[in-house]
Write a structure and sequence with these properties.
By secondary structure, the protein is an all-alpha fold. The protein contains nine helices and no strands. The longest helix is centred in the N-terminal third of the chain and has 94 residues. The model has no long low-confidence stretch (mean pLDDT 87).
Amino acid sequence: MAEQNLLSGNQKLLEQVLGDIKEHTEKKERLEKLGVIVKDITKELENSEKAKDDEITSRVKESTDAICAGYDKSISSEKDKIKQIQSERDKAKMAGIKERIALETASLRKENEELSNQINEAFIQENISRICNSRIFFALFISKQALDYVIYIMFLLVAFVAVPCVLYFVPVIPNWSILVYGGLMSIIVVSLYKAVCANTLLSHRDTILAARQTRLSINSNKNRIKKIEKGIRKDKNEEMYGLETFDYKINEAHDKISKIEAEKIAALDEFEETAKKDILTEIEDRYQGKLDKMRDELSRKKAEYSELDDLVKQQRIYISSNYEAYLGKEFVNVDKLTELNSIMRSGSADTISQAIAIYKNRH
């Protein structure tokens, strides 16, 4: 074709060109359909392989879960037993700690009880009010310790500062009431202090001071009791609480759990070696025929597609070199070549170039 001028060709040559273009168009359409078929078969094959893999995974998981369920239930039961025993052990230990604290602090508690009784008997004999044996009384009237002075100062701040401030900032209360309150409070405090000093401290000073000293001894004993209690609670040695039975039962339960876990691992290993292989074989055999058929079909269609694709490319190169070079892309078209063929068949043109001229004049 390259040896002659296509444009000077006759109708027979034009029909040959039209036939080649039609064939190329049909081959391209066939190639597109093959591409869709290859894509569909590939997707179906992938879905089938995934369905096979999913079924294998599901069956294996179902089987392993069934194997593990019994062992896990037994392990859970043993763990619950350990929690129960541990709870009982903790209660027994707490009871032992309380008993030990009571035993090791018994002498100090008894001493405090005796000291308290001494104060009460002395106050009863001298007809002294129990309030004189309170912390607030010692803080307000015979302060000695740092806490006594703190309580005393707090009392003064509340009585002579806090309350007047509240009265001052309450709108409905007149300001002169603050002066009245201050005067009354001063009288009450001075009178109370004088009455206590005159009627109590002067008459029973030695007994009250002795009571305060005794209270200091009681507080000292209480601090020692707290120190002993704290030391006992922090002591890591549990031998004296008789917890061996609980420890034996806990260790026994742990050993049983270890044994069950070992049996579980052995059962899973056996499943991997035997039942799992049978499951894989059964599922793969069931899918094998279908998958092989799809793979064979896909292989044939891919080969057909590749062969047709090479042919279409060769036709494309041939058409581009031998037809488009003369006719241009515009006329390398089935519809336009058919119309040119009709023009030449009617006798209106003898050559392809004349037919093209007539076509352009019409359009």
